Amino acid sequence: MLEIKNLHASVEDKAILRGINLSVKPGEVHAIMGPNGSGKSTLASVIAGKEDYDVEEGEILLNGENIDELGPDERAHRGIFLSFQYPVEIPGVSVTNFMKTAINETRKAKGLDDMPANEMLKMIREKAELLEIDRKFLSRSLNDGFSGGEKKRNEIFQMAMLEPKLAILDETDSGLDIDALRIVANGVNKLKSKDNAVIVITHYQRLLDYIIPDYVHVLHNGRIVKSGPKELAHELEAKGYDWIKEEVNA
Ligand code: ADP
Ligand code: MG
Ligand code: MG
């Protein structure tokens, strides 16, 4: 599904990613961990096609197609979802109405008509039920002083509605409390299928107690320096990152 080959990327002429190789197949969950500043969020942004980043070398293939030249919207239409890519605060727009617009914009880009209102309503109901989101929440304004957990709920709802092929969740800087953590984890687990894949970026092993990854990768200085099974996350929790840095420098 996703194939990243020797990816080098920079921000404002500063090299951040220095040769990333990563292969993600349908049905897989990959966790990306690593110390602060190692390039995790940069990797997420580069995959999603954010414009601040320059790809200098290497390529990103989505289902065999090189997506290097595609903008963020086109990548989203091909099924890449990055958490927090969509605004979480728009005054006067409800969670539901924002979602309707997002869905219909996506359809328009694919040359499709708006989703019929009854179909949209059915989908909203089904996804909300699956994620145990109550009706009241759906009519709240996107600027309505959402708590951390509610922001997460909104984000996971967006993910559920857009049905991405590849979801990238960057949780590093969000300071997830235990409720928010469960919302994210339950959402991801319920939305997981053999046809989609998830990349979870996290600082904390805790999240991976709830979302069990198939692979854990450690990013350090813009390179994946270690990959392993889920137990690697526990090892990192217990031992920190220094031993990995030492291994790299040895
Ligand atoms: P992580 O998510 O692993 O903490 P980041 O990808 O956020 O790491 O950052 C990696 C490095 O790139 C850091 O040194 C950071 O300061 C730098 N960086 C990231 N984004 C920008 C930006 N927009 N402008 C300048 N430097 C950036
Ligand atoms: Mg950071
Ligand atoms: Mg980050």
TrEMBL record:
What SUPFAM superfamilies does this protein's entry cite? P-loop containing nucleoside triphosphate hydrolases (SSF52540)
Please report the stretch or stretches of sequence annotated as the ABC transporter domain.
Answer: 2-246
**Alphabetical list of CDD domains matching this protein:** ABC_FeS_Assembly
* Keyword Methyltransferase applies: no
Q: Which UniProt keywords apply?
A: ATP-binding, Nucleotide-binding
- Tell me the GO molecular function terms: ATP binding; ATP hydrolysis activity
Origin superkingdom? Bacteria
Q: Name one Pfam family in it.
A: ABC_tran
InterPro entries in UniProt:
AAA+_ATPase, ABC_transporter-like_ATP-bd, FeS-cluster_ATPase_SufC, P-loop_NTPase
Q: Which family does this protein fall into?
A: Belongs to the ABC transporter superfamily. Ycf16 family.
- Record protein name field: Fe-S cluster assembly ATPase SufC
Query: Which species expresses this protein natively?
Result: Winogradskyella aurantia
